[in-house]
Queue: 2 jobs
Job 1
Amino acid sequence: MTARLEIRSLHKRFGALAVTDGISLDIAPGELHAIIGPNGAGKTTLVAQLSGQLAPDSGQVLYDGRDITHMDMAGRVHLGMARSFQITTILHGFTVLQNVALAVQARKGSSFRFFGRADAEPALNAAAIGYLRQVGLAERAGDVARNLSHGEHRQMEFAIALATAPRLLLLDEPFAGTGRQEAEQLLALMRQIKGKQTTLLVEHDMNAVFALADRISVLVYGRIIATGTPGEIRANAEVRAAYLGEEDAAC
Amino acid sequence: MFNLFLLQLLNGVQLGILLFLVAAGLTLIFGIMDFINIAHGVLYMVGAYLMATFAAATGNFWLGLLVAMPAVVVFGLALEVFLFRRLYDRSHLDQVLATFGLMLIVTEGVRMIWGSSPIFVPVPELLSGSIRLLGIINYPVYRLAIIAAGLAVAVGLYVMINHSRIGMLLRAGASNRPVVSALGVNITWLFAFVFAFGAMLAGFAGALVAPVLSVDPGMGGSVLILAFVVVVIGGIGSVKGAFVAALLVGVVDTLGRTFGPILLQMAMDPSAASQTGRTLAPMLIYILMALVLAIRPSGLFGRRAA
Amino acid sequence: MSDSPAPTTAPPASPAAPLRRPRLFSRGAAALAIFGLMALVPLVAHLSDDPFLTVAFTRILVFAIAALSLDLILGYGALVSFGHAAYVGFGAYAVAILSRHGITDIFVHLAAGIGVAVIFAVLTGAIALRTRGVYFIMITLAFGQMAYFFFTSLSAYGGDDGISLRGRSTVLGTDLLAHNSVLFYVTLGALVGLYLLAAAVVNSRFGRVLAGTREDALRMQAIGFRPFRYQLAAFVIAGAMASISGVLLANQAEFVSPAYMSWHRSGELIVMVILGGIGTLLGGVVGAVVVLLLEEWLSVFTTHWRMGLGLVLILVVLFSPKGIAGLFERLLGRGK
Ligand SMILES: Nc1ncnc2c1ncn2[C@@H]1O[C@H](COP(=O)(O)OP(=O)(O)OP(=O)(O)O)[C@@H](O)[C@H]1O
Ligand SMILES: [Mg+2]
């Protein structure tokens, strides 16, 4: 069975800094693969290359066996890759509903339609409401996005990603900055989609990672130093030394 | 034919040098402050008018130049302190609007003070007359002097930018603004300096051309847009780019106007050729700009993606 | 109070919720009021025996169309195009050049003007839209200037000095437009029609993508849009609309010159949009009225009226970022 996502010796430098230093990784369909690593390890940069925001210096990215290394972001989205951003990236002047409806609009019908109120298209709005309900934001649908709390913005990011009808979710720290209640809601949601969605989850929240992941890769200084099941990673001495040790001490 | 070519080539270089003087400040201002200044051409114009006034008042070209230069710098600094400073952290649109307004005010101000009709400045005694070049053409000494002065400024700029502390800051700032603030430099001071410096260069260019061109209130606008083209071709923030692009634009524009119709005559009948040539020639530099951008969207020497 | 923001759970640290008024109604009413008042102009001119009034207001309406078209890309696309006057020129020269060769029908003029505008917008837009920020401003300015110089050097059609028309465009063989009040109402009709068109576009699927791109292009890409296509389409639509105003301008003035296309004109169009209130469509219309009346009024006192305009601009930028509309909004907001 071909991997949903196959990363082949990816390299990316910023000046002298090798931020992605020969990363290879396979993600099987249906798998929830977590990537953990200290700040500045290059996790966001990796996600950016996978989503087409940044071009790698060398290496390949394959999606369902197809080389997409040189495809632009929109093209990948149409293939089914969705991304949520570590730094909330939403349309602040739009309502919550409009934000999600736009993502639905992107895949339903042409957007070169110059007449007819987009806000009044029942098909778009109904679908959008569905995704908002899924993340627990349906009551806020009519509010302008900038008026929502940070945690709610994270939920919005998630709803927008889901609204692109993805076959591969690239989530960059969806839990960052969420409150306890929102985190629990997100965790429940992730559990729900687990197994149905293929997911690459970048996350600092170890509770979430160990609770959710099928496999975990540890990224340090642009390299993957270990990949394995949560149990294997917990037991890995090198990982403990490089990374988890500090976490344990901190907790 | 060769004589004509040489003559026009020199004219083109001279135009390029002037454009460089105007564009050098402009490109630094864009690069370092990310500030679009529609009023930059005004400094060139004010330089020319001050030159005309002081040269007439003192009866001496050199004295006039000596007084006009500090006056332009003061003028530029005043603009920076009273207006531009408030605009750095505003949107480009606000900057366009306010500097456009300033351009209107200064241009009208110049009209009020000096009137709308062109003013002429005599060529200084020392640099009058022509000189025989390569034994084939006569070329005005003053125009050669403009080229020499411009080249001297270019060399001075090169040395300053590559071999001094302020130059290092300028280089760092033009490509990466946060770096400069991280270095603990007084940004306010640096910005004011860049502005005053840009004003001086533009004013100097204006003063230099005063004896060659007629000094009139429209002169700022036309040079501004050419300078924009230069900055775009050269790449924002790059003084070297501005130099190369300015010469390119100056030469292409001048040669195009003269030789465009002549070249076209080989392909079509003379009257059609001269008409087509005259129509196409002024568009050449814009086509050049389009070509450069199509290949390199951030200009010849632009470091950042635009 | 009905317009107080709904209670939210947003932390108090976040900026105050923007006032939400029943906007659609008030904007529709404002449009109706403005266009309705405009429609009375020929009547007033007739009663006060001042035919010049109709001609002067025709000119205002023409620029209102141009400003409206610019607002489409400036306000809804955040594309600071500094070469918009060129498109007005294309429309105007379509009239001048075709009429010179005996083709006087306004529909042919419109088709030619729009055609040239579309081609020019596609070619220059495709280059300019690959860049952003100050690059975009400078490049649109430069291309506008290129068009300006092109017509300046067209000596067969008046070159620098411009060219007088022998008469206005004909409509299906009739000289209907020769009557000033007919031209006025045709222009007003065009303005209203284009305003409604623009309002529809802004609220359409396309308009939503355009506005989304203005807010955050990265987000739009991440949900599968390619911003370039939509921005280019908007750029072309705006250019085509502006060229319609050019056709009307040539008819109003019965004279066409490159001065219509100068970068000062482009700057003035931006000024109109900003002063009237950017991103409101109606703002462009109001801005055109205000700027041209201000021009008219100031020039009574002094030939240096541009100085006054410049001063107004600087003051507005420094003290009222939302333009005249913002000023009103603040005054009304306080009044309540
Ligand atoms: N555009 C850029 N130019 C230069 N350096 C960059 C750029 N983007 C990121 N970096 C550097 O690359 C390194 C990796 O950054 P990245 O954001 O990928 O880390 P991360 O693993 O996501 O960290 P965090 O856990 O803090 O989100 C950092 O040292 C960062 O400073
Ligand atoms: Mg990160």
Note: Residues 51-262 of chain C form one domain.
Job 2
Amino acid sequence: MSNQVFEVFVILKRGDPATHVGSVVAPDPVLALHEAKETYVRRTACVSLWVVPRSAITAFAPEDEILFQAAFTRDYRQAGYFTRHERQPVGPAPEPDGQSGETLAVSRGGAVS
Amino acid sequence: MATAPVAAAGVRPPAPEVAEDLEAFIAWLQAGGLVQAGDPMPESYRQHALRIASFQALAELVGVLLFSDWLERVPAFIRKQMITAKVQDEVGHGHVMARVAEDLGGNRLTILEDYLEGRSKLLNVFHYEFQTWPEIAVGAILQNSAAIVQFQSLVKGSYLPYVRALRKILPEESFHFHQARNLIQTLLGQRDPVVRRQLEEGLALWFPRVLAYFGPPEGERFWSNKMVQFRLKMASNEALRQAWLTRIVPVLEQLGLQIPDPRLRRREDGTWEYTEPDWEEVRRVIAGQGPASARRREQVRSIYERNRWLTEMMGIGEQHVKPGF
Ligand SMILES: [Fe+2]
Ligand SMILES: [Fe+2]
């Protein structure tokens, strides 16, 4: 029998997102589901449980994390950016207040050219 | 960057060049770095994280035998249901920890085999067994409060899958603690002098054992411990023992139980004085000379043999795919 790792997700309340809680090893999804129930939600009030073969999950590698950093430096894409500048006198658009000067320089340079 | 500020270090995986250099990796951990399964990590870190997860998996699976031994003898049906729930929890904790170990390259059968063949050792408290029903109540409250204090410290550690496992386990340990306290209250409520005496005798046996459970004070050696440098162990043995005393002494006093340690007192500075455990004796017990050491190993061996057909059929303990998440 060939086992595989199944990642386990719990839905606590109807309408809640499925949350990853851990993993089990099992030869098939039904046994995985039973083991997940015994191991992770014996004492939890929940409405559903998912098991997903780990091999079916496609994810970015840890070193790709930098790909997501840019989103945080472009603060003009976030709602908070506007409320922070609301009380400023009317004038030219406020300078982006991101922390990383280097990334900003690149993105602003790109906008100008 | 090894010198990343604490807030940032925790949310980013180690840079590959940091993971390749043990010194840099330790500095990164000390600055608040947190490790995810599948992150690049030095081999030595992987081994230490594996050791702590395997050790806890074994403790959960074997520690429960002290209680499951009593399932047939529990004097009240509701208590039998409660002890059954606790036994299920502990086995569940063993499975959760075994998964953490397996994602680090470990193997759940090896965890048992290492114990059966003497390559790994049990905590001192698992080398004993309960003689009376009231003794279980005090043994459980002392063991569980000690485990809670320890897990609350370990949960601040650097290896995230282990931390997540502890977060799942902690509320259940709290249930075991309340269960034990409630059992003591019920037993005391019977106002039976024999039962009270058995509770006090149990306390006299288990209080020094659980004091010793945290291990001898490390002194200066603490900082040279790799587990500490890797932030897999977060507090010294003595600090944990002190935290436990602060937690458990008022609970026992409130229950109206006399703590049988003549030297126990709180010093001016808030620290506790207590009777030093006989560390020679503790070492002997852990080495396998405890009153139930041999029997415990035989129990595990017979369970292991009895289920062999099943573990083989299910392919349990085979190596799994490489770690993710
Ligand atoms: Fe446990
Ligand atoms: Fe427990």
Note: Chain B has two domains: 1-41, 43-319.
